[in-house]
Design goal:
Blueprint lengths: L6 E7 L5 E7 L2 E6 L7 E3 L3 E5 L1 E6 L12 H10 L2 E6 L10 H14 L3 E4 L9 H7 L4 E5 L11 H12 L4 E5 L11 H7 L2 H14 L5 E4 L5 H6 L3 E4 L1 H5 L21 H8 L7 E2 L8 H4 L16 H10 L5 H16 L14 E5 L3 E2 L18 E2 L2 E6 L2 E5 L2 E2 L15
Parallel strand pairs: 1-4, 6-7, 7-8, 9-10, 10-11, 11-12, 12-13
Antiparallel strand pairs: 1-2, 2-3, 5-14, 14-17, 15-16, 17-18, 18-19
The structure holds (4S)-2,6-dioxohexahydropyrimidine-4-carboxylic acid and zinc ion (ZN).
């Protein structure tokens, strides 16, 4: 009997330049090589085909913050940017700090998300770590080692305790490492000084010292070369620190306000020089409405949207031959999967058949082609290559601006027990 597949991706160019057919059955890559028999064949010869991304740092909002974003709009934004799995951060209102709040969050995502999702546990003085782990938390954090929008900071003593408790679970702890100087913070220049690269590096060193139990640590959105060099753990960088600097904006412009802050052009260039040391690119998608942002600088919330533009801007860099396609796949898909213990999407038999198909034509980014509820982007006019269509579990869930409901799933952490 001849083997068959539900769908065959024909003439896919792999990162090593081999051209193969990818045969998919039941949402999983079944065979690589000459295509199996199938009723559905997609000619990929004109596309850059990339395993879909896991964005391991998004703030999907919802609840009281639904005017900024919710699971429906946020997941659409993800899919249209080639991301099929998002990891939601726990600094919601109220924070995800008890099993019952966690379960409510899962239900909300199950009812409204169009893409796969995972949810992290918050971390505070009385967090019941073992119960959160059993309830399905994927990881713990982001832990705020300095306060940020909707996030209270925890100190050294508590962080040591947290590392010690979580190391026994074998879970990943994710950290927002910053140190704030008490100076007036009234524009993007002073914001960069108050939450300086030096402060970030000091915070990273302090976190290293606190981790006496060798807990698995992941440093979120590191924004400088020095911090990357110091980090004892996996390193995440956000696209806004690679593609934007504080010098790109009028200093009073609150739309560039984010924590850690946008750095100088010099720092931004130095950050690109650490490309090979970066494990993960994640968006830190932190949508705020235009109204929320249009208030005096010192009161404006920090955070910028980015889940939809992250991979497209990186793909544009690939087409410009500045970075390799292999490195983009590693940092946006394979490495996050390995760190989080999630089955990878990709070109190996047994991988999840989540792929995004990019037609190699760059366009200018503008807010009106994006899907986040917040309605603005800091990348206006930058070049990007958006996917034309996206498969999730071997099924088309996005095509040319339209969304087709697939079967989005919750990916709980390895401690989950029903
Ligand atoms: O700028 C930020 N905004 N940094 C964070 O760490 C939190 C985020 C938010 O949730 O708005
Ligand atoms: Zn953060």
């Amino acid at each position: 009997m001849t083997a068959s597949a539900s769908i065959v991706l024909k003439d896919v160019k792999l990162p090593d330049s081999r051209v193969v057919d990818v045969s998919i059955t039941k949402g999983i890559v079944k065979h690589i090589g000459a295509g199996l028999l199938s009723d559905q064949i997609i000619d990929c010869s004109n596309y850059l085909v990339i395993p879909a991304a896991i964005d391991m740092h998004v703030h999907m909002r919802g609840g009281f913050q639904s005017s900024k974003e919710d699971w429906n709009s946020g997941s659409k934004s993800a899919l249209a940017g080639g991301v099929t799995l998002v990891v939601d951060q726990p600094n919601t209102i109220p924070p995800i700090a008890t099993p019952s709040i966690f379960i409510e969050r899962v239900k909300d995502a199950q009812a409204n998300s169009l893409c796969h999702f995972s949810i992290n546990s918050g971390v505070a003085e009385h967090t019941p770590f073992e119960s959160m782990w059993k309830t399905g938390a994927l990881a713990f954090g982001e832990i705020f080692f300095a306060p940020s929008s909707y996030g209270d900071a925890i100190g050294v003593a508590l962080l040591k305790k947290v590392f010690s408790r979580i190391s026994t679970l074998g879970a990943l702890v994710t950290i927002h490492a910053e140190k704030i100087s008490p100076i007036p913070d009234y524009n993007l220049i002073s914001h960069n000084e108050a939450r300086s690269v030096h402060g970030e590096a000091l915070a990273v060193s302090e976190v290293n010292r606190c981790n006496q139990k060798n807990c698995r640590v992941h440093f979120c959105h590191l924004s400088s070369a020095d911090s990357i060099d110091l980090a004892m753990g996996s390193v995440e960088v956000a696209p806004h620190h690679l593609f934007l600097s504080c010098e790109n904006f009028d200093p009073k412009n609150t739309f560039g306000k984010v924590n850690p802050p946008l750095r100088t052009e010099r720092e931004r260039i130095a950050l690109w020089k650490r490309w090979s040391q970066i494990d993960v690119i994640a968006s830190d998608h932190a949508p705020h409405t235009i109204n929320d942002k249009q208030i005096p600088f010192c009161d404006a919330p920090s955070g910028i949207p980015g889940v939809e533009t992250m991979v497209p801007m990186l793909v544009n860099k690939v087409l410009e031959k500045k970075i390799s396609i292999r490195s983009v796949i590693e940092k946006t898909s394979t490495n996050p999967a390995v760190l989080l213990g999630i089955q990878s999407a990709g070109f190996n038999v047994g991988d999840r058949a989540d792929f995004a198909f990019y037609h190699k034509s760059p366009v200018r980014i503008s807010a009106d082609i994006l899907h986040s509820k917040c309605g603005w982007t800091p990348y206006e006019d930058q070049m990007a290559v958006f996917p034309e269509f996206v498969l999730m579990d071997g099924v088309t869930v996005y095509q040319d601006g339209d969304f087709i409901k697939g079967l989005p799933r919750w990916f709980p952490g390895s401690g989950y027990s029903q």
